[in-house]
Amino acid sequence: MTLLRVEHVDKSYGDEEVLHDVSFEMQRQDVEVIVGPSGSGKSTLLRCVNRLTEIDDGAIYLDGEEIHALDENELRRRVGMVFQDFNLFAHRTARGNVTLGLRQVLGMPREEAEATADDYLERVGLADQAESYPAELSGGQQQRVGIARALAMEPELILFDEPTSALDPELIGEVLSVMRDLADEGTTMLCVTHEMGFARSAASRITFLDDGRIVERGPPETLFEDPEHERTRAFLGELAGIQ
Amino acid sequence: MDPVLLQASDWQFVLENWQFLLLGTVVTVLLTATSLGLGFLTGFPAGAIEVYGSGRLQAAVSTAGVVLRGTPIVVLIVLFFFGLPLPRLGTVPLLEVDLKAFVAATLALGLRSAAYQAQVFRGAIQSIGEGQMEAARSIGMSERQAIQHVIFPQAIRRSIPGFQNEFTIVLKDTSVAFAIGLAELLTRAEQLYLQPGRDTAVMEVLIAISAVYFVLTFTTNRTLDYLNEVYAVPGGNE
């Protein structure tokens, strides 16, 4: 069943066209990985889906409803986001980061919100860090709190915007392992990442975006083994070579 | 006769009048409290309007701030006392405070402080990274909720050092109420050394009240330092 449908989306910043006629569809439980060179529009595309950025033209449907017809806060409650720089609320503990949305957006009573937060922190392996402030956590731990914060709202779709790009190499594994678990559990995920290992093993589809256009899209084995376009081969080959 | 500096009999005079000076100290503390209170209640929303507001309201707030920060405090206090149509409000017994003068001084000191506190708060808000707002919006919070629950709690903590400065400045500047005869500490000090035959005690009286101002600023700053530590969040000032 189609959860997300992106149709002919255009987006420019001034004279610079960032997205050009981008269209794709995701089914529930799909894990879609978007790859592409820096400046190709990957993050912008993600941000258009929860309207942190507004599109210029085209349409985006969530579960059949055009997202601009929805209240933006309602949309964002249904579409979670995990940020490259974590963006944890610096003045709140790990638990406080998770409870804030539960309390303020969902109106959950305090005790229920705290119990729920602790459940999600446990899911990302941080049950023992519930009382820690972001500055007391490693980057990998912070990002796992960021994932717990998004998950706790029980979104239908989670956007991952380069979730491991700001991490030291030795901390990437713990975040990817949480993401893999989510994928295995059937979470619908739209991920911008350069982690080709994750893309290969967890993605249902990979989209290669270059210069604001979808160059090629398909299952990982096709894109890695037998891409249609030379540009795709060159880019993925380069990424794989680095890792 | 040349006044002999710092003689024992003049210190004796200061000690004999400690109750008289204490009443002035009470007025100074009250005026500091009302002025800072007014400054906080006005300055905070003003700082927020400077960041999040738009149009005429923002322009008006910003212009008022420029005018208040650009006018000498003695001028403000005299203008407010003689220029505002304040009714005669009578005098508080014991403290001998003319309420009209007290109100005028509170308005002048308070609004000027608001203009500075607004800048402290504006700077603190703007120092909070854009990502904090985005993260709050990304879980479905409205802009208002995000400001209230994510931006303000962090900005207030970052404002504390600026408020400490502001407190010290306002406390000492209550002494300009001297210009409109309000019976605060400096005015009472003057009343002492202007008594017949007491002109030798000018230095002693002024040194004594300076010590009072110092003790007040020092202890309050220490208290605020302590509060700053209690409410500090790890990494909250980064």
From TrEMBL, chain A:
Membrane topology note: Peripheral membrane protein
Keywords attached to this entry: Amino-acid transport, ATP-binding, Cell membrane, Membrane, Nucleotide-binding, Transport
Compartments reported by the entry: Cell membrane
Residues annotated as signal peptide: none
Principal subcellular localisation of the protein: membrane
Cross-referenced InterPro entries: AAA+_ATPase, ABC_ATPase_HisP-typ, ABC_transporter-like_ATP-bd, ABC_transporter-like_CS, MetN_ABC_transporter-like, P-loop_NTPase
Protein origin, superkingdom: Archaea
Domain ABC transporter intervals: 4-236
Gene Ontology biological process terms, A to Z: amino acid transport
GO CC entries: plasma membrane
GO MF annotation: an example: ATP binding
Coiled-coil stretches: none
Pfam families per record: ABC_tran
Similarity remark: Belongs to the ABC transporter superfamily.
Protein name: Amino acid ABC transporter ATP-binding protein
The species this protein was found in: Natribaculum luteum
